[in-house]
Design brief:
- The protein is of the alpha/beta class and 495 residues long.
- It has 2 domains: 22-173 and 215-287, Alpha/Beta hydrolase fold, catalytic domain (Rossmann fold); 304-493, Alpha/Beta hydrolase fold, catalytic domain (Rossmann fold, 3-Layer(aba) Sandwich), CATH 3.40.50.1820.
- It has 17 helices and 16 strands.
- The protein has helices at 2-22, 74-78, 81-86, 115-130, 147-158, 176-181, 185-193, 209-212, 216-219, 243-257, 273-287, 335-350, 368-374, 395-402, 422-431, 449-461, 479-493, and strands spanning 28-37, 42-50, 61-65, 94-98, 140-145, 165-169, 232-238, 263-267, 304-306, 309-312, 326-330, 358-362, 385-390, 409-413, 437-442, 466-470.
- The strands form 2 sheets. Strands 1-2-4-3-5-6-7-8 form an 8-stranded mixed β-sheet, with helices on both faces. Strands 9-10-12-11-13-14-15-16 form an 8-stranded mixed β-sheet, with helices on both faces.
- Helix 16 (449-461) links the parallel strand 15 and strand 16.
- The radius of gyration is 25 Å and the shape is globular.
- The termini are far apart.
Length: 495
């Protein structure tokens, strides 16, 4: 009887735990906050993810650093850490994503940008004042990709008393031979020389004492294995990297030879988020595992009506200050069809198949400019904008293509030639400065079949990458291929 009672209590506890998991709220995401830095003499932007619903609790804090060309929105857009936490894949934590400029997260040798000092003396204290984070060094993590991977290593290794874990994804390190010979000189000075006392230097003269003190490649030679005892050091890189692969291999071997404890992984992938996303998730699962997958309700917000258009935002938009990429859909769709497609997008987002995006069903005569001016929550840029044309005259899409920059991906479903034939459409695509990748879908019996067929052949002859599908589905039925299109568009948003 006691055993049965014990089992019953265990089952009750398990049920309570599962119920709690299912009720985990999505962490709040806030994009583009500012810190006034006296050291840099400027406002420094940062974004933050904060767990909700745990009053009085202090969480681990993860500082996530971007690569060259990125900013404080990069990790928000390309990796959905908030969903990882909500689904219970990783434990709750505060995530901080600052602008890193072209600093390599180091103090510039000429004093023009003391970034490391700003990070340690201004940013971290600001975060610890404003947010419920633990100040125990073992609960501080620092990670990043590319230049951010370099930053995670240099900040983490130089300030070993501040961080308990380092996650370096494809760190942008150089072997001495590559660093000494890389060119052209002007570009090298812009990327490296300005920060590391290399202006005007060539060859091995570039390897200055200032650089040695900040390059992970050299820092590890100054560290005793005991100084990293109890800390987690992870380096993860794809097998399709170029010179970074050699530097990662060399630093791994040097650490192994010196008995410095670390985790080193090489996975399939290149210098992109298809590699970094699973790498980050694996690292966080190991360091701060969650309670298991929780149920995430697949919901979009109620449509926002703007003139003749209807905008559906991810449910998470209601509790965040971040922006989202957007898929514009043009075509004669009923309200019920729009709701069905928006709901399916929400399901895919909840399942982790795509990252959060807005869906906007364009009404007649409504412009994208009008939509984006009225909706600051949309990430208004070519890279974060796609178009689905559903059974429409392609003249409008052709006009859009002629206006650069417009889309990163276009889906033409059962397209009609209208005033623009396949040759003219292909010509405009070819002349576009940044070719918007095209997906062509057609049914064999559609009267406009020849347009899509001709366009497909022309794009092949022009060697323009595209997808082509012919399927005997019900004409006008979007849902059979909707999921495939959204996954394709998601890959273009987050390439």
């Amino acid at each position: 009887m006691k055993i049965l009672r014990h089992i019953a209590l265990l089952l009750l506890a398990l049920a309570s735990a599962l119920a709690a998991m299912a009720a985990v709220p999505r962490p709040a995401e806030t994009e583009g906050l500012t810190l006034r830095s006296d050291l840099l003499g400027r406002d420094v932007r940062y974004s933050v993810i904060v767990p909700q619903g745990a009053e009085g609790e202090r969480f681990p804090v993860l500082y996530l650093l971007h690569g060259i060309g990125g900013d404080c929105s990069s990790w928000l857009e390309y990796t959905d850490v908030a969903s990882m936490i909500q689904r219970g894949e990783v434990g709750p934590m505060v995530v901080v994503m600052p602008d890193g400029y072209l600093s390599y997260y180091s103090d510039a040798a000429d004093g023009s940008m003391p970034y490391e000092r700003m990070f340690l003396e201004e940013l971290m204290p600001e975060i610890e004042r404003k947010y419920p984070v633990s100040i125990d060094p073992k609960d501080r993590l620092i990670g990043g990709f590319s230049m951010g991977g370099f930053g995670a290593l240099t900040l983490g290794l130089r300030n070993r008393d501040c961080f308990g874990s380092i996650i370096a994804l494809s760190p942008s390190m150089r072997t001495d031979s590559v660093y000494a010979s890389e060119g052209p000189q002007e570009e090298w000075e812009k990327q490296w020389g300005r920060t590391f006392d290399g202006i005007g230097r060539k060859g091995t003269d570039r390897i200055t004492p200032y650089y040695r003190a900040r390059s992970p490649y050299h820092i590890i030679d100054t560290i005793a294995p005991s100084e990293l005892a109890g800390k987690n050091l992870i380096i993860d890189i794809g097998d399709r990297e170029n010179s970074l692969a050699e530097s990662a291999e060399q630093i791994h071997r040097r650490m192994a030879e010196r008995g410095i404890a670390h985790t080193y992984r090489v996975r399939g992938g290149g210098h992109d988020f298809d590699c970094w996303n699973p790498a980050l998730l694996q690292a966080l699962r190991e360091l701060y595992p969650g309670m298991g997958l929780s149920e995430v309700k697949p919901e979009m917000t109620s449509p926002i009506h703007m003139q003749n258009s209807a905008l559906y935002l991810p449910k998470a938009a209601a509790g965040s200050d971040r922006r989202y990429p957007v898929v514009y859909v043009r075509g004669a769709l009923k309200d019920s069809e729009r709701e069905t497609l928006a709901r399916r997008a929400a399901v895919l987002t909840a399942e982790g198949a795509i990252r959060p995006m807005a869906i906007c069903f364009l009404g007649e005569n409504d412009s994208i400019g009008m939509i984006e001016k009225a909706s600051p929550v949309l990430r208004a840029s070519r890279r974060m904008r796609a178009l689905v044309e559903a059974g429409t005259d392609c003249s409008r899409a052709a006009s859009d293509i002629a206006t650069e920059p417009t889309y990163t991906a276009i889906v033409l479903s059962e397209p009609q030639a209208g005033a623009v034939d396949a040759g003219e459409f292909a010509r405009r695509l070819k002349q576009h400065g940044r070719y918007p990748r095209l997906w062509l879908s057609q049914t064999p019996a559609n009267p406009g079949y020849a347009f899509a067929s001709d366009l497909h052949v022309l794009l092949r002859e022009m060697d323009l990458s595209h997808r082509y599908r012919v399927a005997d589905t019900t004409p006008g039925a979007l849902l059979p291929q909707w999921e495939e299109w959204l996954k394709y568009i998601d890959s273009r948003f987050h390439i």
